[in-house]
Design a protein that fits this description.
Layout lengths: L1 E3 L6 H11 L5 H13 L8 H4 L3 H6 L6 E6 L4 E6 L7 H9 L3 E7 L4 H6 L4 H11 L4 E7 L10 H17 L13 H6 L2 E5 L26 H6 L13 E10 L2 E10 L1 E2 L4 E5 L3 E10 L7 E2 L3 E7 L11 E3 L7 E11 L12 E6 L2 E14 L5 E4 L9 E13 L11 E6 L2 E12 L1
Parallel strand pairs: 1-3, 1-4, 4-5, 5-6
Antiparallel strand pairs: 2-3, 7-8, 7-14, 8-13, 9-12, 10-11, 10-14, 11-13, 15-19, 15-21, 16-17, 16-20, 17-18, 17-19, 20-21
The structure holds guanosine-5'-triphosphate.
The site of guanosine-5'-triphosphate (GTP) has 23 residues, from helix 1.
Length: 437
């Protein structure tokens, strides 16, 4: 579960509060954070410090890298990925989104703050769009900081925020339900978009709603923890060839420890694996999943694998583990269907350069052929166009600055979808149709 939203929306605080409510943080540690945050003049950030463990993050009061924790709810083991909200760290947020099945979009209800984070320069819309483009189909929108709305816990403010966010999420492809259906059992379980009023800082409606909180006079829905427990697990491609993209790589005395997510297939201790694109064979001498005990892992699991027999200096984040009998393809030219966004300032032409983000890989790429303008179903409207404007769908050939592990979307969804960015803005999202020699 990736937690996204504009900078300072309260993502880390809400996740810190979740960990406190679930008993993952001792009183001693909590008091230590409270004391140290106060001493640094950042008293209100003490809960965020549970997630933001890096000194630089604490000094600046911003999340820089994706923080990962595990929690067990009533029916699920959830890996929390707390993504940075600041626009400078969007590539990190993208890597978090790539590793997620579901998302929590945090929006602040404070006067003026919601408005600035939801307008075009705010990160709320870009984050929502990115998670959808990267394969997330279910989102809980945490309408946060309602304790600081004017008046506090104002139902009108909550409904107004819902009325702004829901149509946008529907427009970008989430199946949002009609408000009237929210109270039916079926809709509650299968809606792709659900809203929860909450205060990460006070903890109100995170695990429970106090009877003396004004929210209890008008809200009858789920707490935040109930809402995330209702996420449905995404289908797992357990029978497809094994793929694991390494997001972190650390040499240790016992071998190279790589962490990441098993995108497809299964992996267990003792398996021989091929490390691509370098082509080295290694042994998975230890496999751990979800911060738990060693044991076999399957598609969807967040895993930590100790590899022996591989040269750590040749591995980079984005290296992919697979089995030698079904190696992951490596390519530097691909044919793709891209959908350009309103943020694309200048139409695409041959030679247009981007930064392409695919799983953990950020790489420069350029348009080497404009094949056709299409409709969203992929039917050709105009062959060999001279340019692709914003808001269009097209088939293009992209050439990357080096070969990477990539697959056709029809073969492996996770390795076949990407986003294109220019000058710090997401300008297009795409699916790989073919790999070219
Ligand atoms: N009043 C109020 N303040 C909150 C709440 N949640 C967070 N804040 C405050 O908002 C500020 C930012 O909180 P963070 O949790 O660091 O926000 P973030 O979204 O994780 O920030 P980045 O990760 O840097 O994007 C801090 O001062 C928090 O105390 C809330 O529910 N109510």
């Amino acid at each position: 579960m990736v937690v996204v939203g504009h900078v300072d929306a309260g993502k880390s605080t809400l996740m810190g509060q979740v960990l406190v409510k679930m008993g993952h943080v001792s009183q001693r540690v909590l008091h230590k954070h409270e004391r140290e945050a106060r001493e640094q003049g950042k008293a209100s950030f003490y809960l965020a410090w549970i997630m933001d463990e890096d000194e630089e993050e604490r000094a600046h009061g911003v999340t820089i890298d994706v923080a990962q924790k595990h929690v067990v709810t009533e029916t699920k083991l959830i890996t929390l990925l707390d993504a940075p909200g600041h626009r400078d760290f969007i590539p990190k947020m993208i890597s978090g989104a790539c590793a997620a099945d579901v998302a929590v979009l945090v929006v602040p209800a404070t006067p003026g703050e919601f408005e600035s984070c939801f307008e075009s320069s705010g990160q709320t819309k870009e984050h929502a769009l990115l998670v959808k483009a990267l394969g997330v189909n279910q989102v809980v929108v945490a309408v946060n900081k309602l304790d600081a709305a004017v008046p506090p816990w104002d139902e009108g403010r909550y409904e107004a925020i819902k009325a702004s966010v829901e149509p946008f999420l529907r427009q970008i492809g989430f199946k949002a339900g009609k408000a009237i259906a929210v109270y039916s059992y079926v809709a509650r379980h299968f809606l792709q978009v659900r809203f929860v009023p909450v205060s990460g800082l006070s903890g109100e409606n995170v695990a429970a709603l106090s009877s003396d909180c004004p929210l209890s006079t008008w809200y009858r829905g789920d707490t935040f923890l109930q809402a995330i427990d209702r996420f449905t697990a995404a289908p797992r491609a357990v029978l497809k060839p094994m793929r694991m993209v390494c997001s972190d790589i650390a040499p240790t005395g016992k071998g190279v420890v790589v962490s990441g997510r098993l995108l497809q297939g299964r992996l267990q201790q003792g398996n021989r694996v091929l490390v691509m694109p370098i082509g080295d064979l290694a042994t998975a001498s230890r496999v751990e999943k979800g911060g738990a005990q060693p044991g076999p892992a399957r598609a969807g699991d967040s895993v930590e694998v100790t590899l022996t027999g591989v040269d750590v200096t040749r591995m980079v984040p984005g290296s992919c583990l697979c089995k030698a009998r079904s190696p992951v393809p490596v390519a530097e030219k691909l044919e793709a269907q891209v959908a350009t966004l309103d943020a694309l300032a200048v139409p695409l032409i041959r030679g247009t350069e981007f930064l392409l983000h695919l799983q953990g890989v950020d790489i420069t790429a350029h348009v080497s052929k404009l094949i056709a303008l299409t409709n969203s179903a992929g039917t050709v409207i105009k062959a060999r166009p001279r340019c692709v404007p914003s808001g269009a769908t097209a088939h293009v050939q992209l050439t990357l600055s080096r070969p990477i592990c990539v697959e056709r979307y029809s073969d492996c969804r996770a390795l076949g979808r990407f986003v294109l960015r220019q000058k710090g803005q997401t300008v297009a999202v795409g699916l790989v149709l073919e790999l070219k020699a």
